[in-house]
């Protein structure tokens, strides 16, 4: 018995050491040209479907058959989806063909997935794929409009798609209304969703160690923002929304932060 | 310049050392240190940072009483890409920024202090060691 345990422990230690060596020596192929091993792919795909179904289970689906809603959805689809997913008779953009995994053909997705699952996936995105979360870019009503259009994809011939797509223009975004009270936890997610961690280390957020700008720990009690603005209520939001208005030569870009998102981010940062 | 991606972060020093021992042949390239800086005296720079009161606004590792939180903390400043949010972080630019920040950003809260060129070089020698 004891011998068995010792053997198992040694084997486990060897396995960990081997895995560690492979990772550290750079032997794991992270390139987008290398496909997954078939079992790896199946497990990841299963995890994806199970997780989406679980999260989508309680979503209440509104009526999706209003033609005007579908037209709005088509406008959004043209602006944000077709580039990677393509459409009936329309190829994805060249860059999107290099994605691993390649973006799904939504005509199939629309036939097989529940509306709630499609909604949840558009809203939240899928980690480690090219699918972004649209939660901070689209209102719920826009998300549902997109779902309403995507649902019609399997029934459209390429000619019908082309004709419909040619008849809709750009769709302006409907911004989420600002909430009365800023929500720091939502702000924490917003800080990830505006990719702040690619330049700043932020307490409570996991991200790369790539200090392009200064770290934000202690920003709540820091006397000045960006070395220029006194850290008074409202100023952090102002800086987050329009940095180059405050400091014209700043390397920090205007990220199109909405008023609500800026208030929530500031609420989170002020506690750090 | 070696084209090695430096990765710092979740792996602390201990597992790095263990793995490096296990794979020492293949991983000898990981032991690169930051290059020494020409011209400045880092130890003098550390004292000068204290003398000029930099610590009243900045937290600076290794500098006595440098616990200010008016401007950003300077831990890891050598690895930062921009100074003052706008100036590419080279030793030369850092020395110029220290001497006349308002030349680059008229609105900055950081004052122009009477720092000589040599003093600035020494400060830079110390700050560029904060990686």
Which features characterize this protein?
heterodimer; A: about 270 residues; mainly alpha; 13 helices; 2 strands; globular; B: about 130 residues; two-stranded antiparallel sheet; 6 helices; about 35% helix; about 5% strand
Structural commentary:
The complex is a heterodimer of chains A (272) and B (131). Chain A is mainly alpha-helical and 272 residues long. Chain A is built from 13 helices and 2 strands. In chain A, strands 1-2 form a two-stranded antiparallel ribbon. In chain A, a hairpin with a 3-residue loop joins strand 1 (224-225) and strand 2. In chain A, helix 3 (67-80) crosses helix 8, helix 7 (115-124) crosses helix 8 and helix 10 crosses helix 13. Chain B has 6 helices and 2 strands; from the N terminus they run αααββααα. In chain B, strand 1 (82-83) and strand 2 (87-88) form a beta hairpin. Chain B starts with 12 loop residues before the first helix and ends with a helix. At the A-B interface, helix 1 of A face helix 1 of B.
SSE layout and pairing:
The complex is a heterodimer of chains A (272) and B (131).
Chain A: H1 2-24, H2 38-56, H3 67-80, H4 82-85, H5 94-97, H6 106-112, H7 115-124, H8 140-150, H9 158-167, H10 184-193, E1 224-225, E2 229-230, H11 235-241, H12 243-246, H13 259-269
Antiparallel strand pairs in A: 1-2
Helix pairs in contact in A: 2-7, 3-8, 7-8, 10-13, 11-13
Chain B: H1 13-22, H2 24-27, H3 42-51, E1 82-83, E2 87-88, H4 91-99, H5 101-104, H6 117-127
Antiparallel strand pairs in B: 1-2
